[in-house]
């Protein structure tokens, strides 16, 4: 892989070179000489097929998680979130120590000891890590999904970006069945606070227990706003907003 320099930007295939654009710039690579049919049938590419199968399963599990919390992700995610979630699912897939190579899945791996720890503290917006923004300790009741915060003083306990006047706190309780490919989610109330020195308690309560079975994933979101003439506007299209998996059960 090489990086294309110069004023002419090319996309597509020219002779044996493929030009393409990424967020890292315009790149160029040599065209692959291996056909899809050969990869699918040649014994030489057995490992490639196994890796591809497991990658596909990890990508599907990642999409399931992302689709489950998409409503919160709309205001708090980065432009690499798909790749980062897939990478996370690949790590969890590796906890599957019973399936044959090429058949390992997140659905089996998530049940292994330590696997859910990989999910905990995952941030959906790498540019806004919740532990670097929200300093006040909070508790998560895994039986009810309630997130409790005592004595919150926004101006002291939250690292608000320049221009922010208000912050909204909300949570969610999701059940994700990675083996069955199903999920459900229930959202909490949203608490909107001015970023000032007023101290108060915050309780975020899910509307109900999410239906179904699977891994319980508890999320906490912090969203910033600027108030102008009585109307609150999100800052820089959500670039400063945080969303994190704060507990898993």
Describe the fold and architecture.
The protein is an alpha+beta fold and 249 residues long. The chain folds into 3 domains: 1-33, no CATH class; 41-119, no CATH class; 130-248, Sandwich (Immunoglobulin-like), CATH 2.60.40. Helices cover 25% and strands 31% of the residues. It contains 8 helices and 13 strands. The chain has helices spanning 36-41, 46-68, 70-73, 81-93, 106-109, 115-119, 130-133, 154-157, and strands at residues 2-3, 12-14, 17-22, 25-30, 139-140, 147-152, 166-177, 182-187, 191-194, 200-204, 215-228, 231-234, 242-248. The strands form 3 sheets. Strands 7, 8, 9, 11, 12 and 13 form a 6-stranded antiparallel beta sheet that branches. Helix 2 crosses helix 4. The longest helix has 23 residues, at 46-68. The relative contact order is 0.15. The model has no long low-confidence stretch (mean pLDDT 88).
